[in-house]
Amino acid sequence: MKKNKFYITTPIYYPNGTLHMGHAYTNILADVLNRFNKLNGKESYFSTGSDEHGQKIAEKAKQGKTTPIKYVDGILKNFYKLWEELEIDYTYFNRTTDPKHEKVVQDIFSKLQSEGKIYKGEYSGLYCVSDETHFEVGLIKDNKCPDCGKELKVIKEESYFLKTSQYSDWVKKYISKANIFPENRKKELINNFLNKGLKDLSISRESVKWGIPVPGDKNHTIYVWFDALINYLSGVNYDVNTGKSLTWNKDTEIVITLGKEITRFHIIYLPIIWKMLGIKQPDKFIAHGWLITNEGKMSKSKGNVINPLELIDKYGSDAVRFYFSSQIRLNEDSKFSEDLLRENFNTNLANLYGNSVSRIFKMITNLYGENVPSINKSKLTKLDKKIIKNSKTKFSIVKKLYNNGDSIKANLEMISILKDLTKYIDKTKPWIYKEKSVEIQNILSILFDLIFKVSFYFSPVLIKGTDIFFNSLNIKKPSTIKELTSVNKNIEIKEVPNIYQRLK
């Protein structure tokens, strides 16, 4: 059954400092899929947000001699600015300090507790304050966090537990059959966590005061990860009493994007919580790899972050969005540097796309003025027919890849189409035609049709550049794929655009 609604999420991020390129990577990935699904005629809903509770935030606020809420309010200005500069078109920004979210968290806690799925016990283990993550004693070498390398804290205190151990077999089967991309994440989760036996999850703290109070027990606050995972439900107006969301229904495709380091919580514990609540499971998880610099994995705790706002100011949002939509491998860690971004911009945006637009528009206006010539199908050459056929196949592949959630390969396919277009220009040599003829009419018509479709399918990524393209014509940009197939052929060129200039 074709799903007519699309719901995509990103993790909600800690407001404990400036967001880095790793955060931008995840949100660009989700934003591009959100925009494509709108082009595909679906009602699309995109949520992101901020994870504002926990010991780490409380300590940061104390260092700044302010309250936690005032601290996060100040940090969030940078969140909003980055998403605006990056053209991130989210539907809802969910704050875990929002009273609506807090109510949903407490309602779910109370429901699961009343059903005997939550009980009180004692927690003992190791805790990383920086990553807000718990580890079992004896499983960690040198008492160091495996993610950030910082010293782990020994904790022993009263806690409420979620009976996740009862779902160990179920979640293993679930993961083995679930749509998790890339596929290798399944093996990692099963080997690293489930084969060792899933224990009940500690979901409250006595020692942490900055958090949502446990209903009926003010000595405890709800563990920040349980709190954060509920945001995917509070963000879509989930009602505990009815067990339904006001935003999604059975025909909604639910996609959760995340970095691979948090798959344990999102692909083990989140499905268990949703299973306990009796609601439909996510249709897909996209768990991308890390960004690697010369200093290793990019993270705030390691201090090797790159500020995306500085790169946007220098190169524009399209350059950053396109890098993370074409030069990253989702199934492995990927290198990132300013030099790589510049190289990608010059090669693919300035030379391959921008230059093709200018060349095609100039050749058309030189011979036909503002009127784009129409195709004469009875006079097509073998070369004409070949590029029409091949491009049709490749555009179908682009749509299929996007529908499968692989926007990276979709945009690589788009680059391939542009390379075919360039080869076609080199072989047909349209610049040698000084007079109108059926041959040049077909060549320019084919070239314009290709660059028009390329611009349309690039529009989820290249916001500013494709706006320039469509604004240079006398027609409105098609808002859906269906509209693209029925574009009026009486198209006029208002101006020859210079979309991207090569960086020196």
Write a brief structural summary.
This protein has helices at about 20-40, 55-65, 70-85, 100-115, 170-175, 185-195, 225-230, 230-235, 265-275, 310-315, 315-325, 340-370, 380-405, 405-430, 440-460, 465-470, 480-485; strands at about 5-15, 45-50, 90-95, 120-130, 135, 155-160, 180, 200, 205, 215, 215-220, 240, 245, 250-260, 285-290, 290-295, 295, 335. The mean pLDDT is about 95. The protein contains 17 helices and 18 strands.
Give your account of this protein's structure.
With 504 residues, the chain is α/β, with parallel strands linked by helices. It folds into two domains: 5-335, HUPs (Rossmann fold), CATH 3.40.50.620; 338-484, Orthogonal Bundle (Isoleucyl-tRNA Synthetase, Domain 1). Helices cover 46% and strands 16% of the residues. It contains 17 helices and 18 strands. It has helices at residues 21-39, 55-63, 68-85, 99-114, 168-177, 184-194, 224-229, 231-234, 263-277, 308-315, 317-323, 338-368, 382-403, 407-428, 438-458, 463-471, 481-484; strands at 5-13, 43-50, 92-95, 118-128, 133-135, 153-162, 180-181, 201-202, 204-205, 213-214, 217-222, 238-239, 244-245, 252-259, 284-288, 291-293, 296-297, 334-335. The strands form five sheets. It has a six-stranded parallel beta sheet with strand order 3-2-1-14-15-7, with helices on both faces. Strands 5-4-6-8 form a four-stranded antiparallel beta sheet. The protein has a three-stranded antiparallel beta sheet with strand order 9-11-10. Strand 16 (291-293) and strand 17 form a beta hairpin. Helix 10 (308-315) packs across helix 11 (317-323). The longest helix is centred in the last third of the chain and has 31 residues, at 338-368. The relative contact order is 0.12.
